[in-house]
Amino acid sequence: MNTNEMIRVEKLNKFFGDLHVLKDIDLKVNESDVVVLVGASGSGKSTLLRCLNFLEIKNDGKIIIDGEQVEKETHDLNKIRERVGMVFQHFNLFPHKTVIENVIEAPTQVKGIAKSKAIQEGKELLDKVGLGDKYDVYPSTLSGGQKQRVAIARALAMKPDVMLFDEPTSALDPELVGEVLATMKELAEEGMTMVVVTHEMGFAREVGDWVVYMHDGKIVEYGHPSELFDNPKEERTKAFLSSIL
Amino acid sequence: MSHLIEVFIDTYDLFLNGLWITLKLSAASLFIAFFIGLFFAILKISNIKILEWIADAYIWLVRGTPLIVQIFVLYYGLVEIVLIPMFWAGAAGLAFHSGAYIAEIIRGAIQSIDKGQMEAGRSLGMTTGKTMKRIILPQAFRRAVPSLGNQFIIGIKDSSLVSFIGLQEIFGVASSGGSNNFDYLTYYFIAAIYYLVIVLALTLIVNYIENRMAKSD
Ligand SMILES: Nc1ncnc2c1ncn2[C@@H]1O[C@H](COP(=O)(O)OP(=O)(O)OP(=O)(O)O)[C@@H](O)[C@H]1O
Ligand SMILES: [Mg+2]
């Protein structure tokens, strides 16, 4: 067994009622890989990400995290989620808590880390994402880009093995996209394993190790960014790429 | 007018006793009602059919019968069977009633909180219960303050009905005073003044809380 394999998905199927949203998905994410998911709206990208941290429960197939096949019957999914961080399109910061309170919430409440230690570590993370001067403000006073960087720091505070990003820059004004992508790029360079749904093809090309193109609940094509973007093999991929460029 | 002022001054110690009972009744019943409301609100959003039905049945019962009937049923039920003091029978009746409305207020407030908040908490490894307690409910309560304040005002005024089981709160004092002196209008008028003052005070408190919360946001 390859110990470098962080996530392995085999024949994953997901239904919403009669709607077949994920169809026999196979996916492998090695440690320190950055995998970028692209595809049209409704193709199942978010659902796939949400299955990976068990916010949605698969109907069928295997999800293997760090060598361990995870099933809701046999695993405490909360424990798994501690190791799989997630960043959302709309940030989902806790508006009634200050920035530092957002960051220390899970470490203190879930892991039982002492508040003083959590604050110290939280401040280091906020410094890292460039928000060293914003510890004590409420999220409502931040720009979208700053909010998303706090959300990233909040997820990192749990010291996850993997980070999932669901369109982290789609809700941002164009001029704020760069700062969030820069933070993500830095994270990738430090070796974080990441699965990223994004429409930022520049980011996919520059930071992605793999690009996965999804259509209608299936993985249509999978490859290195240069292969997939410059020499797509499938007609669907070509059509998709020309539609977004 | 001078007659009204005269009676007001003559009776203020009686009415202050009544006022004190009204305040104690309202505080006790609304405190209990808040937890009843929270409990049934959580049943209603539990996504477990049987629990939702229980909550629906309770709310239907409260909405479908007059408060005075609820007070009498609880009074004769409780006082005769378990021998609790009249005050607590009255408080229980009022709490049972307000609880249903508070449940609906809290349920609405919880459901108005963005779903992303629960997801964010869960994605960090927090349990549903912990996310509810630490993330959803604090936001829901803030949002519910105006409606809860309104319901508390209604609760205070409704407490006048427990005079019918014999409690000498403001309305009870006015009723006895009015009939003893054959001067109903003056006594009920004075009762109205006391209620207006309490409601004014509570309104100011609620406004103050709302303003303070608006600042911290
Ligand atoms: N909770 C749900 N209940 C029912 N259907 C759902 C639910 N969530 C998603 N769907 C459906 O599943 C399909 C895939 O949705 P998903 O959100 O995964 O797509 P996506 O690729 O992320 O799209 P987008 O780019 O718009 O975010 C869509 O048809 C969507 O309507
Ligand atoms: Mg999506």
Automatic annotation (TrEMBL), chain A:
Cell membrane keyword on record: yes
Domain ABC transporter: 7-241
Keywords in alphabetical order: Amino-acid transport, ATP-binding, Cell membrane, Membrane, Nucleotide-binding, Transport
Membrane topology: Peripheral membrane protein
Tagged with keyword Membrane: yes
Record-level Gene Ontology MF annotations: ABC-type amino acid transporter activity; ATP binding; ATP hydrolysis activity
Gene3D superfamilies reported for this sequence: P-loop containing nucleotide triphosphate hydrolases (3.40.50.300)
PROSITE patterns xrefs: ABC_TRANSPORTER_1, ABC_TRANSPORTER_2
Single GO cellular component term: plasma membrane
Localisation per UniProt entry: Cell membrane
CDD domains (alphabetical): ABC_HisP_GlnQ (cd03262)
Predominant cellular place of this UniProt entry's protein: membrane
Family: Belongs to the ABC transporter superfamily.
Name of the protein this chain belongs to: Amino acid ABC transporter ATP-binding protein, PAAT family
Organism, scientific name: Oceanobacillus limi
UniProtKB/TrEMBL annotation, chain B:
Keywords: Amino-acid transport, Cell membrane, Membrane, Transmembrane, Transmembrane helix, Transport
This protein's GO CC annotations: ATP-binding cassette (ABC) transporter complex
Membrane topology note: Multi-pass membrane protein
InterPro entries, alphabetized: AA_ABC_transptr_permease_3TM (IPR010065), ArtM/GltK/GlnP/TcyL/YhdX-like (IPR043429), MetI-like (IPR000515), MetI-like_sf (IPR035906)
Record-level Gene Ontology MF annotations: transmembrane transporter activity
Transmembrane segments: 20-45, 185-209
Domain ABC transmembrane type-1: 19-206
Keyword Transport: yes
Primary location group: membrane
One record GO biological process: amino acid transport
Family: Belongs to the binding-protein-dependent transport system permease family.
NCBIfam families in alphabetical order: HEQRo_perm_3TM
Protein name: Amino acid ABC transporter membrane protein, PAAT family
